[in-house]
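Quick question: what would this complex look like in 3D?
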Amino acid sequence: MPGPIRASGCNKAPPVKIVTLWTDWVVFFVLAALCTYIWRVARTPHLAVTWRKAFLSAPGSAAATVLAMFVAIGVIDSLHYRPLLEAAPGKEAVYAPETLSLLDHLLAAQREGKERSYSAPLAYVAFEKEAVIVNGEPRREYQRLAHAGNHLQVPEQDWAGDISRRCLVGAVLGLLLAALVVAAYLLLVSRRQQIELGLAWQRLRRGEGRYPVRTVLATVAVLCLLWGVVAQLAGGYHVFGTDRVGNDLLYVVLKSLRTALVIGTMSTLVTMPIAVGLGIMAGYLRGWVDEVIQYLYTVINSIPYVLLIAATVLILMVFIENNGDLFPTSAQRTDARLFFLCVILGMTSWTDLCRLIRGEVIKLREAEYIQAAQAFGVSTWRILSVHLLPNVMHLILISLVINFSGLVLAEAVLSYVGIGVDPSMQSFGTLINTARLELSREPAVWWTLATAFVFMFSLVLSANLFSDAIRDAFDPRAIHK
Amino acid sequence: MINYLIRRVIYSVLVLAGINLVTFFLFFSVNTPDDMARLQLGGKRVAAEAIQRWKAEHGYDKPLYFNPQAEGVGKLTNTVFVENSVGILRLDFGKTVEGRDIAWELGQRVGPTLAMATPVFIVTVGLSIVFALGLMLFRYSYLDTLGVVVLVVLMSISSLFFIITGQFVFGRLMAVMPLSGFSPPPGMFKFLVLPVVVYVLSQLGPDTRLYRTIFLEELGKDYVRTARAKGLSEIAILLRHVLRNSWIPIITSAGLLLPVLLVGAIVLESFFGIPGLGSFTIDGINNQDFSVVRAMVFFGSFVYVLTYLLTDFAYAWADPRVRLQ
């Protein structure tokens, strides 16, 4: 991990110390790899044609838009740092022990605006009565919340009006933003295609053109609208309520997104080298190599994945317990557990990718360019790495997208059973885990479950729709799961 | 035919041996028996004699893979690995932390798990086939599209939500079913309804969609056109021709469902308080009981391999071409 950025030549310490957790490295690596791949696709005609096909379907593109929003939130949440603490006079300034992310900074009001316990969405009083002394007599009353609805003078009268005013303002602002996006798109199109703005607008309105731009822009508009309303409401209330210790649920659920994204992508990526290497070797070399590799993945595949994960997590917990000095801070321990969980999840799913690549390579090895390479006496290693590897790369991305939703769902289940992420880590699994106990209270606390449901459902649904579009664009038969 | 089946059986045995090696490596190499002893005896400062005694009690006091002190073949056989593996072959899994025999526990807990998994399996496969065939009757219409949308939505909802809302609505709001618990056969039914319904719901999406694609593909083939030309009704085509020719992929996915059920049982059992194999595993993890988890991993893999073998047999039964290979 990089040390503090040293400002040379002056004594003032920089205001933040950048921290890069293990999983952050992976997030950045994924982004970089994705950009490289997109650049490569753009220069390779046959790949570009197929990938464009994936974006021709309206549901697929709309889902991709929503996914992009979630990914953006996750990336913002991956920029970690430790802020500089106010120095006591005469002492050297130190950095806070707590690691924050850019998202924490943006949501500072939500993060710091803690209540004492549960409060319902958009409430201005606490969920439970508390004992207070009024005129020397103890009474049990609903207390006003510390950070929600403070601006209301007479809450009973003003509340409904304030909420509707905020909704309206948020909607208008959101739509304005959406209109800006549409206008920017129209300007760009009219510049590019040298047509008038009015014509571009008509084409967009009628949904002409190859790509479902209308659907994408409509999705953007809906997202802007929703976030506008949420942002306006969040200025004065806890939009989704608070949990048992008074954390704003909007903040908690946005933090859970990163965990879901990391698990969903990283699990496929960490085992990618094994799957690709073995798959290419088995498919190209055939013979006993193929037999051994097939045997290997039949063995791994035959261990039910939850049991394998359960076993490995148990082993890992004991390992961390016995080697406590390797992981000094709790953040590192949590992060290491997340990292290893991804490795284990990936270990259990690499067999599918391996089989997919093996099948593809068996087809490719009969291709003319491979036979030409063999005839020229190109070494086996070179054929594997230069001629075969680039031509199976798209399978990795496809299996990444296809596995994604399953992994996000698996995380929730595993964390519930207690073999997932560290209980102190915000994730959908831990959220649902607490929600279950809350439902059995009287009256029931329903909003934790509802919030987790809304976000998790939209994430998984958009991932499913997007992976369907990709599956259809590439050979729909070969990638059948 | 016989040749084919024998080959498959031999391969399955080899796979089981491989699984045994992998799990042994996993359990004994990352954390050595010393670590396990320290964990069970508690604390870091445990006397060396206590550790030795614990290891001797559990039969972990020999070298793991290779014993240089022994003579001849003993160099390889007089090790923890061989003794442990032989034990598993004789279905002797050792004892739990509380001192109960694991094999006996397994026998006790197989019943409840099967009582839940069998109806789930039959209902899921049956309903999925019926729904998929139903969608085929209305293919490429709005009803078909609507069906697919519903299936994708079902697929995108975590099974946890089904479980929690199911318990909340039926167990608490309507109070028509017990929240959780289990009782032996006569009273078993009312405890099983909710878990079975919940599990079928969460499995319906992917299966029906898969069968729908299989049927669609089959419907595009030439023999279907011939059947239509003969004047067969659409239902007769679906039931007599399409369904029959789709058995192989259906068997494959149904076979894959069995181990999934076993795994799903882990979650469901802990939610609904059913004393089956799943809750046994969870207890094992919470007690940090290595022998229980290792026994369960091996047992689960055994079921998995067995299902694969049965699917292979089912192939041979459903498709004569497989037999002749």
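Answer marked as accepted. Chain A touches chain B through 52 residues (CB under 8 Å).
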